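User: Could you write out the 3D structure of this protein bound to adenosine-5'-triphosphate? I've included everything you need below.
Assistant: Certainly. Input first, then the structure.
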Amino acid sequence: MSNTANREPGYVSLRSVSKVFDDVRAVDDLDLDIESGEFFSMLGPSGSGKTTVLRMIAGFETVTTGTISIDGDNITELAPFDRTVNTVFQDYALFPHMTIQENVEYGLRTRKVPKPERARQASEAIDRVKLSHVADRLPHQLSGGQRQRIALARALVLTPKVLLLDEPLGALDKQLREEMQVELKSIQREAGITFVFVTHDQEEAMRMSDRIAVFNAGRIEQLGTPHDVYEKPATAFVAGFLGVSNLLDGEKAMALVGRSDLVNIRPERIRLHGAGHKPAKDYSSVEGQVVEVAYTGANTITIIENPAGIRIISTQLNEELPGHKDSFVVGDKVVATWRNDHVATIPQ
Ligand code: ATP
């Protein structure tokens, strides 16, 4: 990653970056390389430091120690407007008294782009987010999703190499949020811009990102593709933060998987069968009793327990339970099975 030759513009590097606020170490000695054109997400719980990292890349926050570079140029000391980055905030920050067209043109006006040219570029950016039909309206006449798209157009029109997005979909309801996730991803792909995206929503990060950095207490616990961080969590924190986990160690792990390491089996890997079921070759099993069943539309979540203190969560697609005739009810005695190669060992 240190080799900067022959790279497309739009890569971001952080070296030994820390940020201390009074007595809080918000970011702790971070090294990070974000590749040109990638959709990169910073994911983590509230207070884990991801927004502070984004704000340091934008230049809204100074670093306490360390260096930040874009395309190999050290930008650590540069003012925000001298950096080749733009930021899209959660609250959109549109000018309320300007039309959509004027809002999108604004940044070009401050760059002294002549009127006809900035009108053309703004129209193109508005078209890209599919909102040409509302270009003459004021922001309050648009829906939340439309305002979000305009905030994006306003950033894209300035053709940044890197776009920083701080929970941009946080204010939208679930359905709109999911639609915008798809749109945002396709706009990013078309524009070929590096996106650095902050979210605390693991599904959102998984759905959109090329790579995810999972933050905890000012540090990156794991950095990898959505598949890697989900299937091969590096720590118990990552396993727990990305989806539901069945974490086992010590005697319980020994009883179930034959070793006492910390292990994780994802609920969707666990199948439930009636009492007496014998596991097939390459599968393991444990007996238990159903203590909870929850129907969630697409899935049924079943929790089983046994007297040895084992508690297992299983999630099954309802499509695989035709007519629910195979779903279990509280009190049923069952056998949970899983494929041995679906047991992930978590390094300690
Ligand atoms: P959220 O999802 O809630 O935005 P986050 O992961 O983005 O959380 P940060 O906002 O980066 O976390 O905050 C990291 C830590 O730094 C927190 O403990 C926070 O209270 C602290 N912090 C952030 N900004 C400031 C500030 N301006 N002054 C003092 N402390 C701050």
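The two ends are 27 Å apart (CA to CA).
User: Perfect, thank you.
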